[in-house]
Design brief:
By secondary structure, the chain is mostly beta strands. It has one domain: Beta Barrel (OB fold (Dihydrolipoamide Acetyltransferase, E2P)). It is built from no helices and eight strands. It is elongated, with a radius of gyration of 14 Å.
């Protein structure tokens, strides 16, 4: 699993029919401290994520193991929207104020 922030959407009017009804979102991958890795990807949204939200992504065969995804031609799937991140007993990120905290 990987962490990322939604930075955009992809609109594709011509696509595989099994992708119909799903949003395609641009995700900027990031480290656990909120720093972007410089890599972004297109992921299929299964949880209703929106612009700017921190999400958890799975890739490869795991992307097709989410509910109802077995027959979908997808390599990256958003499986969760992050509410908070706690590490070593300290809150590092909180969605309610979209803030990252140092150690």
């Amino acid at each position: 699993m990987e962490l990322g922030r939604i930075s955009g959407t992809i609109v594709a009017t011509q696509k595989n029919e099994r992708l119909s009804g799903f949003k395609l979102l641009v995700v900027d991958l990031m480290k656990m401290d909120g720093v972007k890795t410089g890599t972004n990807l297109v992921a299929l949204d299964t949880v209703g994520a929106g612009s700017g939200e921190i999400v958890i992504i799975v890739r490869g065969s795991s992307a097709r193991q989410a509910e109802g995804m077995a027959a979908i031609p997808v390599d990256a799937t958003i499986i969760a929207i992050v509410d908070s991140i706690e590490m070593e007993g300290k809150i590092r990120y909180r969605k309610s104020d979209d803030s990252w905290r140092d150690g």
